[in-house]
Amino acid sequence: RKLSKFTAAALFSLSASFAVQSANATIVQFQTVMGDFSVNLYDKATPKTVENFLAYVKAGTYSNSIIHRSVPGFIVQGGGYKYESKPPLVAVTQNAAVINEPVYSNKRGTIAMAKLGDQPNSATNQWFFNLADNSAILDPQNSGFTVFGEVTGNGMAILDAMAAVSIFNAGSSFNELPLR
Q: What is the pLDDT along the chain (180 residues), one digit of tens a residue?
């Protein structure tokens, strides 16, 4: 469906807030309009990626960011755009790219960094949650996608509910935009 305009109530507002730091793992809480859930980050296995992600979190960069891409049965993606009280969406300022650290497979419930095609070390601010076991597709592609954490608790129920929301084509980077 083609979408000509949208309202604030229709967007997923998402902020990631630093929740718990322990000697073995970092937990971040994603606060969304559809519910809050936690993600356990893989500090030791993907240290550069976790450091990159937490730099955005600690700076408040992801506050009022949105899920800008949803492909049911595949992924929901965010970290790239913010809603600042009226359209258009504002691109999130990117820090330097982080080196690719493909240690774990892109299985259901994991979070991974998005990157540019044929550029393995191009991940910056955008990430995605795997809604299915995408390892056969994503692990060999573009030198692999760095999985840097996993959803805990009831988080997948919330992400599945997000993926069930209607998708609209708002043009350009927003051709798979979930809106309620």
A: 333 333 333 334 444 444 444 446 799 999 998 999 999 999 999 999 999 999 999 999 998 899 999 999 999 999 999 988 887 889 999 999 999 999 999 999 999 999 999 999 999 999 999 999 999 999 999 999 999 999 999 999 999 999 999 888 887 778 888 887
Of 31, 6, 14, the residue nearest 86 (C-alpha): 6
Gap between the Cα atoms of 89 and 91, Å rounded: 7
| Backbone conformation region of residue 120, classed left if phi is above 0, alpha if psi is from -120 to 50, else beta | alpha
| Tokens at 166, concatenated | 């209607």
| Phi/psi at 83 (5° precision) | -110, 120
The residue whose two tokens read 């043009």 is: 171
Tokens linked to 39: 């993600």
Query: Which residue in this structure is represented by tokens 């840097």?
Result: 148
Give the up-direction half-sphere exposure of residue 136: CA atoms within 13 A in the CB hemisphere: 3
- Which of 96, 104, 128 is CA-nearest to residue 44? 104
CA distance 97 to 79: 14
